[in-house]
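Predicting holo structure, guanosine-5'-monophosphate bound.
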Amino acid sequence: MQRKRIIKVKDKTFAVSISERTLKSQIKRIADQINRDYEGKVPVFLAVLNGSFIFAADLLREIDLPLEIDFVKLSSYEGTSSTGNVREFIGLNVDITGRPVIILEDIVDTGITMAHMLEILKRQNPESIDICTLLLKPSKLQAKLDIRYCCKEIPDDFVVGYGLDYDGFGRNTKDIYTLIK
Ligand code: 5GP
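Done. Tokens:
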């Protein structure tokens, strides 16, 4: 099937910016690193919903370790700009005390969401916490975060696709698209 270079999501137009092939190879690169770094360990992966569901599904199938996965939710975004308000943390059903934890996030923008999540998770005394994000906007980062695994750094643009949405839509594409108008 011919992939579209330009898509419309609701009232906005987006152009393809990261291909499925690039995503796949970057995810494999990160998975190989995790497989090496966590050899002999049994990590708990916490996928941050909703945006990371496709990333988590693709990454975890490249991970060759005994692992647990849980899905958590904490979001600070509405529309196309960060509100700065952090909403509630829900969904953690695994006891992470004394366990190595890897957080899977779709995109780190200001980092406020991630900083808040780290604060909450640290209260449960995990052995360690690493952040693994599909995308990072380095120029927007405000919070002091140690991001161990990042598939791709991107400019300060709004992106959709491959799990990321615009107002609830646009998550179901194989490539990632950037807002053009
Ligand atoms: P932060 O707290 O780092 O500013 O925001 C993180 C959250 O904002 C991400 O988990 C994601 O849901 C949302 N977000 C940030 N930038 C983008 C973007 O370019 N596109 C989409 N769809 N969501 C974004």
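The first strand starts at residue 6 and ends at 9.
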